[in-house]
Each structure stands twice: as structure tokens, then as C-alpha cells.
Amino acid sequence: MSQYVSRLGRRSPSAAPRLRLHRRPRRIAMLSVHTSPLHQPGTGDAGGMNVYIVELAQRLAAINIEVEIFTRATAGGLPPTVQLAPGVLVRHVDAGPYEGLAKEDLPAQLCAFTHGVMQAWAGHRPGHYDLVHSHYWLSGHVGWLAAQRWGVPLVHAMHTMAKVKNANLADGDTPEPAARVIGETQIVAAADRLIANTAEEADELVRHYAADPAGVAVVHPGVNLDRFRPADGRAAARARLGLPQDALIPLFAGRIQPLKAPDILLRAVAALLDERPDLRSRILVPVVGGPSGSGLAKPEGLQKLAARLGVADVVRFRPPVGQEQLADWFRAASVLVMPSYSESFGLVAIEAQAAGTPVLAASVGGLPVAVRDGHTGFLVDGHDPADYARVLRRFADEPSLAARMGRAAARHAQSFGWDTAAAATADVYTAATQSHRRRVRSHHG
């Protein structure tokens, strides 16, 4: 391998099949090692990334790019392949025990996962896949090897980055391990193109991981605007969910872990009620989601905190729900609260706004792109519960605020359709294919 190839961690041209002349790839191998697109978001490690992969794959298929998604089998007896939609196939790969394998244990199973991917590929004619698109660093490692072996470009999406998470840790949260930092650095060097959710994420890739700015493309995730829409409004949604019509309902929806900071919402509500005990009879705080990640260590921690703060009577814990019912929770809420410490984009913020609900969020990661401060919601610097309590008091004292901001939020969300995201991703694939081809040509030249 030449010095140029090894230095950049690029693929060896010797593995490249005959160069194909078409520009846009026809069939993508998409890799999602640690979370299946068939899983319920809001449970375990399933979240925004699951939604992202499912929606993106379906919209790519609609513009004639076939997608095969490789994911780890997490139960016995799963069919080897599942047709998710026309043109979208999910392949279950056996790698490690089905149950009880934490995300931290998955690096040890990457070799087995890669073997499963290679076995699937071996059953096809040469050139079956035109490009590999990996999601999250665990998949990136498999993608790096697969793309090199198949002689095709690698496009990678980080979704979250260890260095960024470690710089914004919640109190008592566990830092990401050094092995992940090293792995991410290798993938950044190996990928033909990196997809970032926001311009800020693109800057972080360049700053923290020395990514080539020319190789980073910004593609905002989309939202399913057919599912997340104001529909028949707040009153009807509250009636369906059995919620009081006149209550202030600040909603938390997502995985229960320190990173997402649901505790900040509970502390803010406690501060608000200390100052305004009259609000207790007309406030309800739903927490919709299941424990995840480092939150699994103490799954009952948030319930205990609610009791300790004296707000257990106004907090309702609900398990994760399907997308249709989640849309109803958004419609029913006065405001969605996202006090996260780190958020690569915050898809939930766009989904809530598309349903006509304003968002109160920490000013971190992609949330300043997702939320227009003062128009579709409020952004808060830092994580002081008093700051969140102050905004909640405004919603309590100005009953028209939620409706007014909600209308602006629904308009704002219209620019985040998945069709736009899929078209932009297809353009990234084309660019990756061209630069990969140029590089192979220069080696052969």
C-alpha cells in the first residue's frame, strides 16, 4: 500500500472491482450495529437514530436507491431478512448473545458482525453494493472494512461524538471510553464523506477529529410531516390521553438517562411550585420514555427524585409509546422540555414543533438550529432549574403563549421534511462515489 493510502487510512485500490459508469449509487449497504430500525424508539438504546435510519431508508428507496440495513440480532428466531418497505431490507446478523448485551460490550462483537456482513455479500454477484453508509462509530468500524474489501466508498454519520459528549457530561454520568475516541478518529480518516446534522457538528468533526472540511456535508435530519402535524389540536389530544384540559403540561419525551437531563425538568417544576403553590392543582408533568444507557444503573432514580422534591403527585411516568401516540403526546403538551447536556440534533424537538407544540430546550448541539429562540420556543444557556422554572411560569401566566408559539413552530418544522434530507443524502453519495473514483484512478495512473 502506498504511503498516501496508509497515511489517510484509505481503501486499497487493488480491492476495487471494475469501475462503474453510473453516477448515483443504486444499492446501499447501511450499517446500524447497536440499534435495530425495527425497535421501538425510547427503549434501551433506541432513539432518534432509529427513526433517522428508517425514514431516510424509505425516502431513498422512493427515489430509486435500494437500501439493505444490517443490524445485530437481539432475539432468537428472528427471520434473517425483513422487508421494512419496498426497496428497504433489514438483515439480522448474529453477533454475540441475543439478550443483555450492553452497548459497552459491543466492540468485542464487531468481528462477528463483520463476518455476518461479509457472508451476506459473498452470496451476491460482484459489485452488488455501490456504497456503504454507516451510522455511529461501532458501525463505522465494520463499514471501514466492508468498503475497503468491496472497493466502494464509505459514507459515515457519527450521530454523537465521544469527545463532544465528554466535554458536556452531566453530573455523575460516565465518560465515553478512550477506545471509542480512537475508533472515531480512525473512521473520520477512512471515510470518503462524513454527514453532519448541523454546521456546528461539522465544525466539531474538523476541530476535534481533524476531519477534512471538504469531506464533511451538512444534512439536517427530517421529520415525518404526515405523522407529526397539529391534526385536530390540543384539546382533542388531551381528551384522547385522559389529560385535564386546562392544565399546564410540560412534557419530557425520550430516553431516561443523565445526558437527556429529565431531572432538570423535575427540579424546575419543584422550584416553580415552591414559588407558586397555586399552580399545583393545574400542572401535570408527563415523562414518556424508558431508562437507557447510564440511566439503567438506577432505573427508579427519577421516581425517587420526584418524591424527594415533593412533586411525585404531579409527575406521571409513562413507558415509551409508538410514533402515532407520541404525536398525540406532543399535541397534548403545553411545551416540550429538552434540558439535554448534549444533542447532535434533537429530532424530538422538530417532531414536537411539527405537531404544533413549542419547545423549551438547552442551547446545546443542534437544538439552536431546531428551535427558533423566542419564536417557536425558548433556548436556555446552561442547566440551572431556576431558568427553566422562569420560562414555565411564563407559559402558566400567558395561556395564549403555547398556542401562538405552537403555530409558529408548526410552520418552522415544514422546512424539515425527509424528502429534502433524502435528496441531500443522495447528493452526498454521488459526491463520495466521484471522489472515490478519482482517488482510485490516481492510484492506477
TrEMBL record:
Role played: Catalyzes the transfer of a N-acetyl-glucosamine moiety to 1D-myo-inositol 3-phosphate to produce 1D-myo-inositol 2-acetamido-2-deoxy-glucopyranoside 3-phosphate in the mycothiol biosynthesis pathway.
Sites where the protein binds 1D-myo-inositol 3-phosphate: H34, D45, A46, G47, G48, M49, N50, K103, Y136, T160, R180
InterPro entries linked: Glyco_trans_1, Glyco_trans_4-like_N, Mycothiol_biosynthesis_MshA
Example GO molecular function: magnesium ion binding
Reactions mediated catalytically: 1D-myo-inositol 3-phosphate + UDP-N-acetyl-alpha-D-glucosamine = 1D-myo-inositol 2-acetamido-2-deoxy-alpha-D-glucopyranoside 3-phosphate + UDP + H(+)
Annotated binding of Mg(2+), by residue: F330, R331, A333, T357
Location of the Glycosyltransferase subfamily 4-like N-terminal domain: 47-222
NCBIfam families, per database record: mycothiol_MshA
A GO biological process held by the record: mycothiol biosynthetic process
Subunit details: Homodimer.
Top-level EC class as recorded in UniProt: transferase
Domain Glycosyl transferase family per the UniProt entry, residue ranges: 236-411
Pfam families to which the protein is assigned, alphabetical: Glyco_trans_4_4, Glycos_transf_1
Matching SUPFAM superfamilies: UDP-Glycosyltransferase/glycogen phosphorylase
Annotated UDP-N-acetyl-alpha-D-glucosamine binding sites: Q40, P41, G48, R255, K260, V321, E343, E351
Protein's recorded name: D-inositol-3-phosphate glycosyltransferase
Keywords: Glycosyltransferase, Magnesium, Metal-binding, Transferase
E.C. no: 2.4.1.250
Family statement drawn from the similarity comment of this UniProt entry: Belongs to the glycosyltransferase group 1 family. MshA subfamily.
Species assigned in the record: Streptomyces lucensis JCM 4490
